[in-house]
User: Fold these one by one.
Assistant:
Number 1:
Amino acid sequence: MASKVIHALYIDDDILMDAVKKVRAEHYHIEEVYTPFPVHGLDKAMGLPHTRLAITSFMYGCVGLTVAILMMNYIMIEDWPQDIGGKPSFSYIENMPAFVPIMFELTVFFAAHLMVITFYMRSKLWPFKKAENPDVRTTDDHFLMEVDAGNHDVDQLASFLGDTGAVEIKVIDKEEDNH
Amino acid sequence: MYTLSNRLRLFSVILMVVGLVGLIVGFGQRPGSVEEVKEMMAAHDAHGGGHGESQVAESGHGNQGHGEEDAHGGDAHYEHILHQLQNKPWASLYVAAFFFFMIALGVLAFYAIQFASQSGWSPVLFRVMEAITAYLVPGGIILFIILALSGFHVNHLFVWADPEVVAHDALIQGKSSWLNGWGFIIRAAIFLGGWLLYRHFAVKYSRKQDEDTEGNKWYKKSFKISAGFLVFFIYTESMASWDWIMSFDPHWFSTLFGWYVFASLFVSGITTIALISIYLKSKGYLEFVNNSHIHDLAKFMFGISIFWTYLWFSQFMLIWYSNIPEEVTYFITRIEDYNLPFFGMLVMNFIFPILVLMNSDFKRVNWFVVMAGIVILCGHYIDVYNMVMPATVGESWFIGISEISAVLLFLGLFLFVVFRALTKAPLLPKGNPYIEESKHFHY
């Protein structure tokens, strides 16, 4: 089944922000907004839920800390104990200060890398992926708001979007499977 | 305009009176002779049990530089403890005086940074910061008097001020061109004078800017003196931390000590800004301060707490790893004699803030920020305590009447001065060019 969406293009982020608020106030459904740069506060205006990326980052950090502790315990205490600077490695806790930099680095390393990978997976991004933006001008200086036409009157919706400051309005027949 | 409520005024006056009385009692309880020390320790051992023996066992190390006791054993040990106990009220007075002074100094540095960076988020908090820095005047004068008394050996806080000790100590002799009474006092006067001078003009320009916004003339002046002050501050703060804290252990030195003290005073200052802003908001003032401002302050509390830990650990790990006797004694005395405050402050200043303030949402919940703030402030009091006490009272430390009274005295004075200063000007610096941006600041 084909669904109709309306692409409304804006040329200013302030006008876009106002338009998003107006469209949401009229209970139209915004599918997506494409912008050339991150627009501060747009996620809140669109009513997107808060990101859970920070929670995953905390968990990855905990994993990194654990890996560091286990790794240093195996390498420096169990497998090959050495006497460095008059501090023989007989126990982990007594040599712990020497391992703190590694614990810190691996915490940051795991948190940062796994968080980026999670972000890519969650955003369905991978190398050589074809860009999804419907209009190349959104990579330059235009902002595009994709509104679901649904069961609304398309002409009425289009004129409403024109009143919000859109410079161009296109009605797109969209196949269900390509978004 | 803020009006100082009678309850708050009464509360701060009561704190000051109770603190002063307690401190006088603390000074009065100092043992006058070796016999009194023996009596006190006998009474203490009767119910404490065995504590005295461990002190005898440990008296061989630590407190390098107390040249009075050349031979350990017999009365020399008791004389040693006598000196420590005679020092105790002075040291607790010093810790509290320095702690509240460093809060105000941290706020002054934060305030100057806001101007120098032309920050847009913070102008709504400027009057709170200006009021906290008002404490620099009485706090600085009191600190200067205590420093002068110590530098000229009226008390025994600084061993380098004791000519007897210096005569037998080649290391201190080598440093005496820097560590001597007059040099100490002159430097303190320059440091304090420079900071107070900046404070005076910064507040004056800020008030003038409200009356006359034409061309932002006063704001530009504020910007210039703030940038100049920050250069002056980072040098003088570093030197002040050598003089006023590091010289308690004149044999020991650490090259990042100035930064370490700076991190401590900076985080204490920012925490105090947050606490006082939240208090004023709860009383219905500062209606233009929203939870994004509190969020930003909490981010600073979180970040600078981690910065402090970074410096603490950098200092600790190098000395621990290299294990050079004259360096590592500093940490050995602290770990052996001050185990609980030493590791306790690490929990309060690092683990607690990192866990409580990590979540973004918690940083906008006022009671969370207040709880974390109180723990951070207590933790940094203990930090100063750990820096001062081991060299002045050694293993004879305990949190007694003089420690608590000194904190109450200076807390009372701090609250009184800060909240009285808040009544002096409108709480909104309406002439600041960034005031609209600041009012609409949102995260």
Number 2:
Amino acid sequence: MTCDRKRTKRPSVWLAALGWLLAAPVAAESVTELVAESGAESPAPTPLTVLTWGGAYEASQRQAYFAAFTDATGIPIRTVHYDGGLADLRRHLASGDVTWDLVDMVYADALAACDAGLLEPLPAELLAPSPTGVAAREDFLPGAITRCGVAHLVFSTVLAFDERAFPGVKPSSVADFFDLERFPGKRALRRVPVGLMEWALLSYQVPRQQLYNLLSTERGFDLAFRRLDQIRPHLRWWTSGDQPARWLEDGEVAMASGFNGRFFHAQVTRGAPITVIWDGQLLDYNSWTILRGSDQVAEAHRFIRHATRTEAMAALANRISYGPTRYSAQWRVGRHRASGVAMAPHLPTAPSHLSGAIDRDHDWYARTAGLRARRFEAWLKRDGEAQGDAD
Amino acid sequence: MPRHDSQQAVLRIVVVSALAVVVGSTASLAAIGFVEALHWLNDLLLVSPYARIQRADQPALVMLATVLVPTLGGLVVGLVVHRLVRERRGLAPPDAILAVQTRRPPPDFRSGLASTLAALLSLGAGASVGQYGPLVYLGSMFGALAGRLHLPVRNLRAIAIGCGVSAAIATAFNAPIAGLVFAHEVMLRHYSLRAFAPVTVAAAVGYVVANVFLHRPPLFQVSFAGVAHSYEFVLFAVEGVLCAGLAVAFVRLIQGSARLASRLSVPTWGRPALAGLGLGMVALWLPEVLGIGQETLRFATIEGAFGRTELALIVVAKLLVTALCLGFGFVGGVFSPALLIGILFGALYGLLLPELLPIPLSGQVVYAVCGMMALASSVIGAPLSTILIVFELTRSYDLTIAAMVAVVFANLVSYRVMGRSLFDLQLRQRHFDLSQGRDKAILGTHAVADYRVDDCILAWPDETVAGVQRRLGEGKRAEAMLVDDQRRYLGTLHLADLLTEPAAQPVAGLASPPALVFDERTSVWESMEQLPGFIGEAVPLLADDGRLLGVVPEEAVIRAYLEIIHDLRQEENEAA
């Protein structure tokens, strides 16, 4: 029975792939012809607008995804800088003139935005099978494909330090981040209620499995913010993904949270003296989503299908240390394009890094967005008032 | 003969081991299913903080759920217990203990299932009751089911129940050694190898199911560097004594609440809803009292998580609502609430100590854990099991040694004040008194009526002295029982008294008043107690309406005693 099914499935897969290969150049050609004939007035293919995160990450995407897509389809890609969250999307939708098409969102944001009706649901048969014909549903990590999004990479938010700041004993755990006595120096954290509560609670020796249960109580939040109070006079907030690596590199802060890929990029391309603390790394996914009301939904579908092919995902992982979410792509990750460094030990999913990882609870994140934001802002406003007073 | 014996032994070992594996794995899976279902219900019904915070944007809904879920849950629990449980109350470890000790059949399986459902609903709706009592009973149910098999093993049911209980505890706490000791310490109350071997196998099976197949996370990880100062052991002992006081208060409150409930004019099935309403009201203001409180348990080990007044407040509130829930008929155990109250009290003790004593201490964690185990062990009367639970949960030798001291002192005091445990107190209310050991309790469950003889000499009031004398002579007896036409007992005629009376006189009026009579409920233990000072051949055994059912010769009482005691000793010393 299973053999039969495979046999019937394969040709259709190959047919689909063939059809797509044939169709794509034709479409692209026809567009160029049109452009040639009708001159200045012609409707040149409208660019797809992608919201993404800038810096080294966007540069890798440009090489691995955007250029290849434009080559294949003739559709140019325009990027708009995005730093996460739903607020920007809401504002843009409220303006009435929807010009954004694709959004590269973290998993919990994608869930929340989907629930809030900000995103287009994706068709079931959107994604291409693996080169060996394994259906996308089986080739992706469990849970990667959701109603409105396709998770395409695993990244993690990690703590890292400037090696020059600690010539003796090096920090090695989350608790060390909060230990100003043994490891003095400025700290940098992202100015969002993501990750910092978990790290603060971990510093009380709470087991990783219980983090989100404890953070579901007032007491958990209070404890976390009390811990953050202790380092508050030494805190600097970053908002854009490329800041923490730069600050560490320039010696402006001694320790910082940041996306693992950015730290990796600074290490291998610029030789920055940065070391990542994998303990307490907060695993997360980035998902491709389409903004509701986009007038290029069909093109956006084409882009997602193109960018989530095994080859494309492996190509990205060879440029920045984010792990692909398809098994077939994971097996194709090799050495870093520019420096020749083997990528596998730098991926968040390396087995030795997983033992201390926090498995981010995406449902919890999606449903506590408002509450976390309120509590975080309230804490930020309460400047310095609680310092030193633990009761 | 020896060959036959060893074949028998091998067969028995194989049968009993297979039984242990089957009962152990069933009980273990059932326990996991129960716990999973309970967490699912807690999330669904907005009892768990995890579910509540995800509805933080709808505070009205959360408030409504806080009050309505326990209230309506209580109503459903009340109806389930009233309609489906034959005993009309939640079944609990004492029922299993009774079945094991007296060898009487436990409540039937259907009632057990209904009671388990009621416990699941109670816990699911956030009632302040424990999960381990129902889990122990659930394990014992599967044991009792297997005990019905006709296998060539004496006391099969007791052994099988022990297996079910040990597997349930091994799974629930992820603590196989504690499971096996608990089954012996609380259920079987002896350590024969024949029971020990299968119970150990079942505990290991429970552990394998929980850890190897299903990868359940450890329940309670705390980091503790060790007891820093030797004088702290004195402080642990003092803490144990204080916890004993709290344990006695806890038990008395539960009993008082049950008495209060029985005096109310509310029907039995309506009472849990009333308790649920009370619980919900308290939870509006102090959400920590809802449910099992795993989060609160963890916070108690974190320094600075609670202030002193806050701790004291939660201890008192949790004591009161737990007593309310249990006394008013929610179905559940006492162990989890005792753990929570104990750890909060321990944390409070650890917080106050530095202010009372100007000496360095090892921090709050060890005092919190000591409090938790001391209180809980006093309530369930299982010091060994609780010490092992600490060891297996925390895997910390230092914590275990500290907790051991607190546990022992707590048990010393609480045993003196209230007896071994809440279970034993509940059994005593059902006239099964284990306070002086198994012998007395089991002698108390055997009716002396079972040892009566019927061939006594009867005499009627209008019979003549000579007639009775003649019949006594023929029967070679010295006593006759004087009865009326309805065979109602009037007194005992002694041959010695008849000898001096005229031969033709009717015997009416010659009987001596009864020195001692037994009835159908007189136990072997009571008959042994009353027998000293009794002069005569046999004690008359009367029905409630005064009819003579037979007599119990002195020899029969002694025979009954010897048989039962012999049987117990044999059970306790059986090899595999």
